[in-house]
Amino acid sequence: MFSSDDDNQGVVLGVVFGVIALVIGLVIGVAIYKTNMDAAKPVAALAAPAMPAAEADSASVKVENGVVKFYFATAKSDLAAGGNEALAEIIKAVAEGKKAVVSGFHDATGDLAKNEELAKLRAFAVRDALKALGVAEDKVELKKPEAMTGTGSNAQARRVEVSVQ
To answer: What is the pLDDT of residues 65-106, one digit of tens each?
Structure first.
């Protein structure tokens, strides 16, 4: 009934179907791998960007060209740790007869009146830190809050700058 040719055809068909299944599996596996790799790229870029300290939504302080910049978290007026150390050069200049100028800034998002009030509270917090470090109140000049314009992020806009005149 059955011949040996039928047995060989069964083996050949089995091998052909096996190879086809392997190729299909390989194609599907590569497609899934590439999809996952493409989806992971934006997540990795967002997860670990090279951001300055001011970019994070937390308080920080930075000294640039003799200007002390206090950055604030959203809707907060708490000073960053290390603020007293950052103000050391300002305090020294005030002791030599100069005046500390405190300028508040705010971002352009949300309610303007609330942003201006928050910028004022932040400037008062910096002024109070200067007073606590021994600077007389008449040696501190407060400037009206200004909206951040031009380039920069909202995190950079939420700041108070202290300079000397």
So the answer is: 899 999 988 888 899 888 899 999 999 999 999 999 999 888
Distance of CA 84 to the CA centre of its chain: 23
> Torsions phi, psi of 12, nearest 5?
-65, -45
Residues 31-71: tens digit of each pLDDT? 887 777 665 555 444 443 444 444 457 889 999 989 999 99
Distance CA(6)–CA(1), nearest Å, equals 10
Question: How far is 93 from 130, CA to CA, in rounded Å?
Answer: 12
Give the C-alpha separation, 133 to 88, whole Å. Answer: 9
Nearest to 61 by CA among 91, 85, 92, 77: 85
Distance set, CA 82 to CA 36, 99, 128, 139 (Å)? 42, 22, 15, 22
Amino acid at position 116, single letter: E
